[in-house]
């Protein structure tokens, strides 16, 4: 898992500098190159057909080919300085085949008839070599042929077309506002992604997709040399499946939250947030250290997403349940017998989780997944009961289901596609409830904003989460800021202690660019939505130490 | 093959430098051939090979620099990439922290290449996987493992006359063995430059034994316990401490090495006086490249000696601001150990817990270097010098700084992968006995 990258980007590491590494097989390029489409759909189809025909002639019973161009832009700054401006491009082709009932994969950065033939031959050779040790021949669920189709993230402003100067000015302006408010340090980054993916398979689908993602982020650090303390306040932005319009910071997307904070929905005001961050970082240092014990937790969506990701998203991945990730990401406590029983109470009856690959603005939204399956949404937890998993074409037969869920993904042309997490979201409550109303009913609790430290076991039972801002709730009212807070729970007990969820007015998405899985590790971008949610009687520990 | 010899790489780089019209130029030529095989459910799941070679050129005018990359090496392409870097440098904003390239450095001899690893074939990988899977399936155990091997070269040259070259090989092997009743799990990891030292069958047998031994674990109360950490467990936590020894962070007051009231803890005792940690690129067991990516020479150097912080890591810019020598990021770490074997250490333990490995370690508080994570794949209760029974996994909340102040005993060393999962670099870490290690909750995970 590229958690290290994620931690760096999210500014969670010890004084993380948020300097991303160049993705593997990517080359730095100038912006003109980024904006040049370099190859049209007709050319891609011709090349794709070479792979498919070569595979069939060499004995493949199935083949798919992905011609992928992966573009990234990073603009990184600290205080008054621009640290790095980097455009990267990775262009190549990946061919996946089934021969002798076994998968094989080959890839090349030579997107030419020769390069594609060679990659296909290599895929066939690997499939045949590994078939000697294959004990479970691949069974693919049927999938319709879609013919020639296309899909594009519905962006309003292509971030790559916005000038570097505009981005630098925006970040430096945010930095200066934080510094004016007394911040000791500030690091900020603009991170843009464009995946131009062409997929074709031997079943007659030719799918052209243009996918955009945007993530502005910062970390404001406050250092108190006298007491030897320092605190980092990360941005309240979300990584999104949107264009540069996310940076518009429209007034209607600003939410006045409990404790005097401002939260953001479909667009983000980085300058305003950086200003607030400096003030809050000061308060974080001065905050009262938490008394450990049982508390009712009120968890805000920009915090909630990571708890959902780790405790619901991962254990419902079928490949983990089956043991394919046993040596790396781990397995899952949500074993097949629990699902087959149809009465495994994962959570309280108010708890409903939906997996989704279509939600506008989400990181997971695409038209078709990376094995050409049309995307959809489906229930995972219904009225608290486990009802389904996340599975792809070569897995759903295990569930006696007839179609893939459409959540297959590869981070690049050079990596083989496999099951990856869809957006997994907690559905909002059905009765009208605002976060303020929720807090007013809590006697002894903590309101937690934004994700912080995170850790969960390899079967997803025991977890511990921190946060960024912690507000003590006393007798229904916010009673000041706390620090040194982390909560620990067992996943099933935790979701069964979920007693209330705010209504859809408070529903927001957050997520991560770099969820890691697989060996070699691959990153996946995924969002998780929720409204503010209440959990009763959760164990809170004090993380303050002296060294 | 993406591996160029020292002479081949030099010829290309000299050509690149000769095309420069900028104030200066630095070029890095890197290549790698990688292979892997992955298995799960006692069957191979994926495997592949990739090969990549690329040239990165950085040109500069004053404090403005630009970079460009190419993977074609004819004269016209080389000139094109230099021109492109120069154009980008002219357009770039000035970087106040830009440092001109280094002049020629003196490097030690490299010991990072192994011919046997260079010759790995797909058949070798398939057999290595089979040697791990077959003994597992005979014992009602399910194997999931991963083997990754690499051959790399790195070369750099600049307009100040520096030329550096290194080639290296590496192999990383990990396997998780799970009992088919779902109640036991064992794990083993091996990391070498020289694949002839790897025996996946022998390594897998250890993981199989742990899976069998760890079945039907009993729950004991969380709390503070004496622990014996196997080198993987100890290394994962301590390496997090050692990779946070950046001088700038410490000077800026945002590090565990920042001192209350100002200054850093350089020269201060922060852990038990028996702790000696150093880096040495020419170490026979854990060799590392004698230079890092910007050309700085790596030398044998103490990080912690007698419990005292001896060196912080200074990048070239920060070193220039502080009027000190730049200190490169270590390519390996060696923690001095003792003579006791694991068996000796268990025998000398009245009450304690043996930890095979930690999992999902994440920072909780960078100020105290507090981390949380869990035990995994073989956790055992020790009583009166013997392993009594397997215990359920624990979550811990502990700082490696606090842990190294609670040192009881150092045992024999073992080579472990520093980055985890083949993330680069290797360390030599002893078995460690630590008192008062803080476990904060129980996990049902196997």
UniProtKB/TrEMBL annotation, chain A:
Question: Metalloprotease TldD/E N-terminal domain: from which residue to which, for each copy?
Answer: 63-127
Q: Which residues form the Metalloprotease TldD/E central domain?
A: 160-246
Top-level lineage group: Bacteria
**Pfam families given for it?**
PmbA_TldD_1st (PF01523), PmbA_TldD_2nd (PF19290), PmbA_TldD_3rd (PF19289)
Metalloprotease TldD/E C-terminal domain: from which residue to which, for each copy?
Answer: 292-540
For this protein, the record's InterPro entries field holds:
Metalloprtase-TldD/E_C, Metalloprtase-TldD/E_cen_dom, Metalloprtase-TldD/E_N, Peptidase_U62_metallo, TldD/PmbA_N, TldD/PmbA_sf
Keywords on this record? Hydrolase, Metalloprotease, Protease
Provide the family line: Belongs to the peptidase U62 family.
Question: Could you identify this protein by its name?
Answer: TldD/PmbA family protein
From TrEMBL, chain B:
Q: Where does the Metalloprotease TldD/E N-terminal domain lie?
A: 36-89
Q: What is the species listed in this Swiss-Prot or TrEMBL entry?
A: Chryseosolibacter indicus
| Family label | Belongs to the peptidase U62 family.
Question: What is the protein's given name?
Answer: TldD/PmbA family protein
> By its UniProt entry, which SUPFAM superfamilies does this protein fall under?
Putative modulator of DNA gyrase, PmbA/TldD
Q: Which residues cross the membrane?
A: none
**Where does the Metalloprotease TldD/E C-terminal domain lie?**
222-440
Could you tell me which InterPro entries the record lists for this protein? Metalloprtase-TldD/E_C (IPR045569), Metalloprtase-TldD/E_N (IPR002510), TldD/PmbA_N (IPR035068), TldD/PmbA_sf (IPR036059)
- Matching PANTHER family: CONSERVED PROTEIN, TLDD PROTEIN
């Amino acid at each position: 898992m590229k958690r290290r990258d994620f931690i760096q980007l999210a500014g969670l590491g010890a004084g993380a500098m948020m300097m991303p590494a160049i993705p593997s097989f990517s080359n730095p390029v100038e912006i003109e190159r980024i904006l040049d489409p370099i190859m049209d759909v007709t050319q891609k189809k011709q090349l794709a057909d070479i792979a498919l025909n070569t595979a069939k002639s060499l004995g493949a019973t199935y083949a798919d080919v992905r011609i992928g161009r992966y573009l990234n832009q990073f603009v990184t700054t600290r205080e008054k300085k621009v640290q790095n401006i980097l455009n990267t491009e990775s262009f190549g082709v990946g061919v996946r085949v089934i021969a002798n009932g076994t998968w094989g994969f080959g890839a090349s950065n030579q997107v030419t008839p020769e390069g594609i033939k060679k990659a296909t031959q290599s895929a066939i050779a690997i499939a045949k070599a590994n078939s000697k040790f294959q004990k479970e021949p691949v069974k693919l669920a049927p999938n319709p042929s879609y013919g020639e189709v296309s899909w594009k993230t519905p962006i309003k402003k292509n971030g790559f077309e916005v000038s570097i100067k505009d981005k630098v000015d925006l970040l430096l302006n945010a930095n200066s506002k934080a510094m004016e408010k007394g911040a000791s340090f500030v690091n900020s980054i603009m991170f843009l992604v464009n995946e131009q993916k062409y997929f074709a398979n031997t079943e007659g689908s030719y799918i052209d997709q243009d996918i955009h993602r945007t993530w502005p982020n910062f970390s404001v650090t406050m250092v108190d040399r006298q007491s030897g303390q320092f605190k980092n306040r990360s941005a309240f932005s979300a990584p999104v499946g949107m264009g540069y319009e996310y940076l518009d910071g429209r007034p209607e997307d600003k939410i006045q939250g409990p404790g005097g904070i401002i939260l953001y929905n479909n667009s983000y005001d980085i300058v305003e947030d950086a200003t607030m961050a400096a003030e809050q970082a000061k308060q974080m240092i001065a905050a009262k250290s938490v008394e450990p014990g049982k508390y009712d937790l009120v968890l805000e969506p920009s915090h909630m997403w990571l708890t959902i990701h780790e405790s619901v998203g991962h254990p419902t991945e079928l490949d983990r349940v089956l043991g394919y990730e046993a040596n790396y990401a781990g397995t899952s406590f949500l074993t097949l017998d629990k699902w087959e029983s149809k009465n495994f109470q994962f959570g309280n009856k108010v708890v409903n989780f939906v997996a989704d690959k279509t939600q506008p603005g989400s990181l997971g939204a695409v038209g078709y997944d990376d094995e050409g399956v049309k995307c959809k949404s489906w229930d995972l937890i219904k009225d608290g009961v486990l009802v389904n998993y996340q599975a792809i074409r070569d897995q759903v037969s295990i569930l006696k289901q007839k179609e893939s869920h459409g959540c297959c993904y590869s981070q690049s042309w050079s990596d083989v596609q496999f099951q990856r997490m869809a957006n997994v979201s907690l559905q909002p409550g059905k009765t009208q409830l605002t976060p303020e109303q929720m807090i007013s009913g809590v006697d002894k609790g903590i309101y937690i904003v934004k994700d912080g430290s995170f850790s969960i076991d390899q079967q997803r039972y025991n977890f511990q989460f921190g946060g960024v801002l912690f507000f003590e709730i006393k007798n229904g009212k916010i009673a000041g800021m706390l620090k040194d807070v982390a909560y620990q729970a067992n996943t099933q007990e935790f979701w069964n202690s979920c007693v209330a969820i705010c209504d859809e007015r408070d529903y927001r998405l957050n997520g991560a660019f770099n969820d890691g899985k697989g060996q070699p590790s691959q990153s996946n971008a995924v969002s998780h939505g929720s409204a503010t949610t209440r959990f009763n009687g959760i164990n809170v520990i004090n993380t303050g130490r002296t060294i | 093959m993406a591996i160029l010899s020292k002479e081949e790489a030099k010829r290309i780089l000299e050509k690149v430098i000769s095309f420069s019209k900028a104030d200066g130029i630095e070029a890095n030529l890197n290549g790698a051939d990688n292979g892997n095989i992955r298995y799960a459910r006692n069957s191979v799941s994926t495997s592949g090979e990739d090969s990549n070679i690329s040239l990165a050129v950085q040109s500069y005018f004053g404090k403005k620099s630009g970079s460009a990359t190419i993977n074609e090496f004819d004269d016209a392409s080389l000139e094109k990439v230099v021109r492109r870097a120069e154009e980008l440098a002219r357009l770039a904003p000035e970087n106040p922290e830009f440092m001109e390239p280094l002049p020629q450095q003196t490097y030690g001899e490299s010991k990072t290449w192994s011919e046997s690893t260079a010759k790995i074939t797909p058949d070798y990988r398939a057999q290595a996987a089979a040697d791990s899977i077959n003994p597992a399936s005979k014992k009602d155990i399910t194997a999931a493992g991963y083997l990754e091997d690499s051959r790399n070269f790195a070369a750099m040259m600049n307009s100040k006359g520096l030329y550096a070259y290194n080639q290296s090989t590496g192999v990383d092997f990990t396997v998780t063995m799970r009992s088919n009743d779902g109640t036991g799990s064992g794990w083993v990891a091996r990391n070498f430059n020289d694949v002839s030292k790897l025996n996946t069958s022998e390594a897998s047998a250890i993981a199989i034994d742990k899976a069998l031994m760890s079945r039907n674990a009993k729950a004991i109360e969380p709390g503070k316990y004496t622990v014996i950490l196997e080198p993987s467990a100890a290394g994962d936590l301590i390496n997090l401490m050692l990779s946070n020894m950046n001088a700038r962070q410490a000077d800026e007051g945002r590090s565990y090495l920042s001192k209350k009231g100002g200054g850093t803890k350089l020269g201060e005792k922060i852990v038990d006086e028996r702790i000696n940690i150093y880096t040495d690129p020419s170490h026979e067991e854990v060799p590392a490249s004698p230079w890092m990516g910007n050309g700085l020479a790596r030398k044998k150097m103490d990080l912690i000696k007698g419990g005292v912080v001896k060196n912080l890591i200074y990048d070239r810019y920060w070193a220039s601001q502080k009027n000190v020598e730049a200190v490169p990021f270590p390519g390996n770490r060696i923690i001095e150990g003792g003579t006791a074997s694991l068996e000796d250490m268990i025998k000398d333990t009245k009450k304690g817990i043996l930890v095979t490995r930690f999992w999902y370690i994440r920072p909780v508080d960078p100020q105290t270097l507090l981390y949380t994570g869990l035990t995994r794949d073989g956790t055992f209760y020790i009583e009166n010098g013997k392993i009594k029974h397997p215990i359920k996994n624990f979550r811990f909340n502990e700082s490696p700084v606090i842990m190294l102040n609670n040192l009881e005993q150092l045992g024999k060393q073992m080579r472990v992968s520093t980055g985890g999962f083949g993330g680069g670099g290797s360390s030599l870490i002893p078995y460690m006995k630590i008192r008062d290690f803080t476990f904060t909750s129980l996990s049902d995970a196997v």
